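Dig into my protein:

:::
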Amino acid sequence: MKRNASFGLVLLAAGALTPLTACVPNSIQPPDDKTSVSQVGTPRTGSQAAAFTPWAEDEGDYRIGQGDEVEVKLPFNGEFNDRVTVGPDGQFTLPLVGSVHAEGRTVADITTELNQRFGRDLRDPRAQVAIRAYASQRVFVGGEVNNAGLFSMPGRIGVLEAIAMANGFMETAQSHKVVLIRRAPNGHPMMKIIDIGGFVGGTADDVRLHPFDIVFVPKTSIAEVDQWVDQFITRVVPFQRSFNYTVGRQQNFQ
């Protein structure tokens, strides 16, 4: 019988990596049995509260990542217009101002900085910044799905769409206890338990994914999440404010 593919995940950060070990609970428990199966929530044990940053639904503005293509225009100083790609170090370079750190920042934040820096030499720069190509929008889907792996996001998608990209659930999947792990703005992980049945039945809205979200479908119970987090998060995956994935895949058969 074919067992699930085993994935080794490594998150590559721009700078020193901060291990997730200190952020992962010793035991992850399911939501209270009184919680409606269509409810989206987070585990509520004491250790869980200390281990994960409280879940925040704020969509926020998109944060630029490595490989994104950024266009900068100065309406009254067109000679400084440029279209640049964010490099592996999280930076891009512009004439007159030099290197600009972009990874993990919003367009508005970078626009403010560029106006300040261009303003040292130009009277009224009025810099305009726009993202012209996205290269960093990917999510990982693992566990009891037919094709676990890392997937590029074709725009804004939800958990259900991501699972469909992984060729759907296996017969052994617990679709009412899907785990979503996301990086919080402070670099620490947030986690929630999601009932996919609520989306299908129309009783709940799908949860939109962010770049680098991790979706895990447990096999028999939420207790499997404890083992998975220890194996693939605590020991392998470091979290930091800015990070990217590389994936090594090993398949085992018996």
